[in-house]
């Protein structure tokens, strides 16, 4: 199975290739988009052990001169220090403006490699080879790159579009179940905010909690619909001036939950799942979305075996100030993405603290 | 005297305002381009002592909420560490996407503030208020931002256009003579590569080595012609795909001289002056430029009291490998900008090591 999704941006056009065994064609496809010369491959030790050889052999076979930077795995290493390590390898190996960085890993590796490429020689090409479901359907596309700052997640960053996104579903074979479910949270998001057909497919599936229950055909469809949704939204609003903000559905409360639990207890996808439950309930509390829709969303999240409750030790009094420190704040007002029907969402700054509080109180 | 030079880029339009006493209008002009809310002013201790109060009062009078980050002066502090300090102040003060950074200083402050703005919240607005002649005619325009890496100058960086460039010639009153002459090197460059009228004006001037000999009227003309030249070139080639490379006239040898002397003995403008002498001689050696033109260029550089010889302790055997580590290298070939007549230049990778060596040997 192979699907190519073109992404059309004013100054950047690139393809998202979804292809079984695609990793073997990394070098050939890089050549096909006109790249040659030096490649810096960035990965983490676990992913590199599984897929590093395949990637490097493919690149070398296509004539690339490959160097590598292996960074420790985990969100807590998503810092400017790691970017410095990538820069060190890049400049010691004399990368040129025509060189390419390849991100082989999950969202953390993708965000960091993208940012390192954005800030090397004032911007060199980056190719995203996501290895987690979350990165495949979200982080690898759209050009958001960056690292965390002690004051908040992704505060340091830049927009830098990839030259190619290569998604090989095979690499999900080694993805831990919890990571798979985390990625499914973003898939469910696209069903709610953009594609009712995707939502229906998810609703009809027996189980969504492990890859082996999902099956190759549905997985390919999930990847295709999710990537197309993201490509549609990003094409219409590259720099998040308006529409693109709907991709943050579930992320307002989600980011606060991640931040307040120190990015440890709850992972990003789980936090987004919790955030979607909250956003759905807020929309229902404001009479913008029927209770039945909130229930249908909840059923899919439960079928994925994602948490739907707030972590027990969380204090609601901490959540509201944390929301205000989010970078999506505009003139001090917290902006929420709320569903208006299944397949469509909108952005509002009209959610009161009282509503947020009463919804969250029901979520323990 | 007041001149406004519009810069037209595909996705960015902004003005360069050259105005006596313009610093007093910083706040008003920021409002005029639609800015409001928080401003982070970045400066160094010397400049801040002279002009910080005027800038801050102007911003506050226009209703801005101002915080500041004062960084030590000097090229050796142009590092990722300084960027982290700007980020810390920015995020501690909860800057938002609609906030603005203002760079009040020379090229180092301008490059760092621009890069910090480029990498904060994936890009916020920056206003350049250059206080050195070099920054006024070069670094503050065109959107090149960045910091140095142990492997080379400006290797870490991004393109990020300013929202406004405010040039107040009054602030040059406190500029040391050596810094003034360094800025004149870039002015002379524009005469050679772009504007024959500017070259003629410089040729007719009695002395160019100190501001008080230049006078207000000629200074305004110099600023106007230089900024217009840079705006012309950058508008035609924002991302340095082709034409923009001619702005690197004198910079190929210049960067090597700076790098090999540890960025201490020779400043950037002086290095560019030396680089222009070398590039002129190379063009003459290759029969591309008459000896008389090389002599006329040399006379203006001498009249500015800029060095025209290589530092004594420099070893020619070190220069060639250093040229190859420059980020302008493409497929391993060193690219030179050479003059073809006064007012026009071109880029070539056809300069042989033998020619470089023989020209440099004559420059001790």
From TrEMBL, chains A, B:
Residues 183-329 form the 3-dehydroquinate synthase C-terminal domain. CDD domains: DHQS (cd08195). HAMAP family: DHQ_synthase. Binds 1 divalent metal cation per subunit. Can use either Co(2+) or Zn(2+). This is 3-dehydroquinate synthase. Keywords: Amino-acid biosynthesis, Aromatic amino acid biosynthesis, Cobalt, Cytoplasm, Lyase, Metal-binding, NAD, Nucleotide-binding, Zinc. Pathway: Metabolic intermediate biosynthesis; chorismate biosynthesis; chorismate from D-erythrose 4-phosphate and phosphoenolpyruvate: step 2/7. GO terms for molecular function: 3-dehydroquinate synthase activity. It catalyses: 7-phospho-2-dehydro-3-deoxy-D-arabino-heptonate = 3-dehydroquinate + phosphate. InterPro entries: Dehydroquinate_synthase, DHQ_synth_AroB, DHQ_synth_fam, DHQS/DOIS_N, DHQS_C. Its EC number is 4.2.3.4. The lineage of its organism: Bacteria, Bacillati, Cyanobacteriota, Cyanophyceae, Nodosilineales. SUPFAM superfamilies: Dehydroquinate synthase-like. It is found in: Cytoplasm. Catalyzes the conversion of 3-deoxy-D-arabino-heptulosonate 7-phosphate (DAHP) to dehydroquinate (DHQ). Its main location: cytoplasm. The keyword Coiled coil does not apply.
